[in-house]
Amino acid sequence: MVKKIVTPLLVVAVLLTALIFYTDVFTPAEDAEAAVYKQGSTGATVRTIQQKLKNWGYYFGEVDGIFGSKTTEAVKYFQRRNGLTVDGIVGKNTAAAMGISLSSSGDASSASGDVYLLARLVYGEARGEPYVGQVAVAAVVLNRVRSPSFPNTIAGVIYQPWAFTVVNDGQINLTPDATAIKAAQDALNGWDPTYGCLFYYNPATATNAWIRQKEIRLSIGEHVFCV
């Protein structure tokens, strides 16, 4: 009787073949593209993308969860306005700018994304200000979220057209430091040094006559806060 000798190389080859087969056959297609949403994508995350873009005035189509040509153009418009690569694809950077966290399951989670997006706004608008002034800037965003006169999400308020200078000039995409992140979290936890103010500006640099007509309630650092 002839004994068959199984070499280690043969075992490795068999295992690799099985692994490749399993990956090709059993890995869901959506997992392979979980971090990228583009024309042809569908689902709940696409609806989230469309709704955010619609709230901010970039998208005017139906919120149907189908990433079509109108959604692509809206994404490109958003990318152009925010200093991102203009390709019409919602990947890691564009999703982060929208305040969307893309998970491997394709779901959108906004809890941690809201903190980070708010911290980016604080860092862009108020770095160098005293800590209480940074919390105050974050609080103004949250006061707007609660006001019926503004969008009802953090991302919606921040990306409302022409609402914040740092969105227009691209500073919103800077990486926030630990102080800005803590200030955002403190505001989210309920600290409002402005006592309900909806606006702020720097009197030394502001050129908008409209904002100067607002009633000033208090000053913190270089900013005045008003209603």
Using brief descriptors, characterize the structure shown.
227 residues; 3-stranded antiparallel β-sheet; two-stranded antiparallel ribbon; 10 helices
- Total helices: the number is 10
Q: Give the N-to-C terminal Cα separation.
A: 94 Å
Number of strands: 5
Helix-strand sequence = HHHHHEEHHHHHEEE
Describe the structure.
This protein has helices at residues 8-26, 29-32, 44-55, 69-81, 92-98, 111-126, 131-146, 154-158, 165-169, 178-188; strands at 101-102, 108-109, 199-201, 216-220, 223-226. It is mainly alpha-helical and 227 residues long. Mean pLDDT is 83; it is low at 14-34 and 104-111.
Gist of the model:
It comes from Candidatus Stercoripulliclostridium merdipullorum. The protein is mostly helical. It has helices at residues 8-26, 29-32, 44-55, 69-81, 92-98, 111-126, 131-146, 154-158, 165-169, 178-188; strands at 101-102, 108-109, 199-201, 216-220, 223-226.
